[in-house]
Design goal:
Blueprint: E1 6-8, E2 13-16, E3 22-23, E4 36-38, E5 45-46, E6 59-60, E7 68-69, E8 91-92, E9 105-107, E10 114-115, E11 128-132, E12 136-137, E13 140-142, E14 145-147, E15 158-162, E16 176-177, E17 193-194, H1 200-210, E18 225-229, E19 232-236, H2 264-272, E20 275-277, E21 287-289, E22 312-318, E23 321-325, H3 329-337, E24 347-350, E25 357-358, E26 369-373, E27 380-381, E28 394-396, E29 403-404, E30 426-427, E31 440-443, E32 449-450, E33 463-466, E34 472-473, E35 495-496, E36 509-512, E37 518-519, E38 532-535, E39 542-543, E40 551-553, E41 558-561, E42 574-575, E43 588-590, E44 597-598, E45 611-613, E46 620-621, E47 634-636, E48 643-644, E49 657-659, E50 666-667, E51 689-690, E52 703-705, E53 712-713, E54 726-729, E55 745-748
Parallel strand pairs: 2-4, 3-5, 4-6, 7-8, 8-10, 9-11, 10-12, 11-15, 23-24, 24-26, 25-27, 26-28, 27-29, 29-30, 31-33, 32-34, 34-35, 35-37, 36-38, 41-42, 42-44, 43-45, 44-46, 47-49, 48-50, 50-51, 51-53, 52-54, 54-55
Antiparallel strand pairs: 1-2, 13-14, 16-17, 18-19, 20-21, 22-23, 39-40, 40-41
Length: about 750
Amino acid sequence: MNQERYRIEADGTLIVADGITIIKEYEFRDFDKITKVVLPRTVQQIGRGAFWGCVKMKSINIPIGIRYIESFTFSHCESLTEIVIPEGVVRIDTNAFGNCKKLKKVSLPSTVQKLCEESFDYCTSLKEIVVPAHTEIESKWLLGYNWTPFIHCDSLEKVIIREVEPRASKTQVRSLILLKEGIHHPSGPIYGAVVPGESGEDLSKYARSVVRDLYYESFRNSALFLDWEEDNFKPANLFSDSLNEDNPHYTVLDIPEGISPKTKQLDKYCCLSDIELHRNLAGRENIVWTPYVDSVVTIAEHVETEPITEPECQADLYEGKPIIVASTKKELQDIIAEGKYDVEEPYVVQLPESCTEVSADAFWRDKTIGKVILPDSVTAIGDSAFWNWPNLTSVVLPRTLKRIGANAFTDAKLLTDIVLPDTICEIGENAFERCSALKSITIPKSLQVIASGVFASCSSLKNVEIHDSVVEIGDRAFACCNNLTEISIPDTVVRIGKYCFWACGSLQSLTISKYVKEIGESPLGRCSSLARIVVDDENPRYDSRDNCNAIIETATGRLIAGCKNTVIPNSVTVICVSSFMESTGLASLEIPDSVKEIEENAFLSCHGLRSVDIPSSVEKIGGYAFSYCYSLQSITIPNSITEIQNCTFDSCRALENVKLPDTITRIGLGAFCGCSSLSRISIPDSVHEIGPSTFQNCSSLEAISLPEGVTEIGKNAFYGCSALKEIHIYNPLLLKQAGVGHDVKIILE
């Protein structure tokens, strides 16, 4: 430990010495004993990833002098519940607070100019964030997702855009906020906001600074931007050259007679009660205005404009709840507006017999519906028709239903069960993804394909019955179903997609029939409880030879998936990507001489793996292959290896001894980062490059000799090596960015 820079007290409090101005990059990465951080006022810079992986850290004070929260600074601080970001901070970089899963509320200071994409990625408890009006909210369309600062923030309810120095007077509405109801998108909502100015040009300029690089076409029909001209309120749209009040994509404001936006009458009216905007073109919800800076305006979702039938209302009850007969969201809203129902109570909605199809987005993100009854006249449910219903608990599907579209019931998190009729021929991708309360499902005999991601992240799913009509199980079909303990795959299945059972942490066994012809990449990665894998002896393409408890591609000898009881046969040639990932019960493993390659992530997070012998036949070990193997104590790299890939042994905390062969020419980024028990390592003469952070936080490393052939040492290569006393080196200039402390003795060779 560097006593001059900091100390860690018995209760886990990290106290940085007064006078320190910079917290270096990754300086406290993976310090898992830190519970609290106290920084002096002298600190002016906190480096990239400085507190990454401080999983027990609950609080930290950020000094006033800090201007940037850099990338990964607080990433994976899983115990952090709150954070105060001081005035003076101007930018929060990518993944600055990524995976801070207990962080619930954040308020950004007025000085923040830019909020980068993924800055709060996977902050799954985050419910509310306040952002200054002038702040640029970065977003990027990539790989079918819109990467916003709040991507994967599943609990986020609202983003409040606050005008710090409002231009408007009290007689004018100062802020509009687009809540989570905003945009239908596979990665979650797109957020936007506007503050009404004095002209449409000013508004457009502001809105463009908030909502960046949006290429998602539906946003044009879902966003509402408002401005005023003279004494009349007028709709405007960031992406439209026309401000036509008759355009159905806009909501026109119906202000009570005699009320003008430029008079004190409006201010008085607002103070007495909220102004309801009654006209609902495009079927939008009523919008509420208030005159205060933090006013919240809810902008509703896209719906059909034309009702199928005239709205009806009946006093019948279904399971004790009143039934509303409506065929569109617009009808439902009109009925509710009549005041016959308690708005706090979820309704039972029944579609009329005249309905033949529930169209795409028809009831998307509705908050009022608890149950829905579909008549036998309905044959199809469109894409995203019932996507993200926070109150939906039950759906009665008709016996005539043939198709359920993609994302039809995605994020219906209270849906506990659903009966799929035998008439269904198609269920689209991700149709029931993240239905986290769904406990059981029976695949009907009419269905042949279980599409990609259909039941992904159904975390309560325990029982799955698949009829023998199914021939294909798509990519990620049951990924992250954490409570699924077993599943029977019928003999009719010929294809199992990639990541099919990824992260099914309770899955214990799997049997592959003789008819399976294709198995995708990493079908069983992160299945930590998996103990038994059987492939039918008559399968011509795959096998589990010698009862090895693994899936092996017969023709190539590639081991596709293993488990904690796997014994690798002497005929295996490749240990594939993520094949043993998170097999936490795997304690030891013998790799036979037939293996030529260990691919990326092969043994990542095998926490119980204590020892492994790598034979001389292995020519390549992929990045992250043994990272986070916390119990791994020793490793011998054979002469056949020429390069240690990035993060190959990252965070192997128990690793004490490493023997590198004379054939190694390069040691990659973070290869031994966080190997806190590593006391010595011999760098062979053949090495010419040591990558960034290679030995970072190897806190037991006392001495190291760098051969003459080394021509490059990456940034922070020895940063956090608190026990390091001496370095033997030919060219000390190479240590300029290596993160070596001043108390280390440099010995010239």
